[in-house]
Amino acid sequence: xxxxxxxxxxxxxxxxxxxxxxxxxxxxxxxxxxxxxxxxxxxxxxxxxxxxxxxxxxxxxxxxxxxxxxxxxxxx
Length: 76
Description:
Strand order of the largest sheet: 2-3-1-5-4
Strand content: 35-45%
Order of helices and strands: EEEHEE
Shape: globular
Radius of gyration: 11 Å
Largest sheet: 5 strands, mixed
Number of helices: 1
Oligomer: single chain
Structural class: alpha+beta
């Protein structure tokens, strides 16, 4: 499954705050956007949300952008 996520770093806590009109997920993360910390926290959050290991969540595009394409692989 692929999803589009808009990330808001440096928030008070990591949480899903809603969806944009085009279906993009809006997620706040507590981590700062330095050295991949916010990306790592986003992947950990999504892995927990979908009940998959963190190794099954990857950023396909948007490593340094606020809007990212995320791939979540099903457990097999």
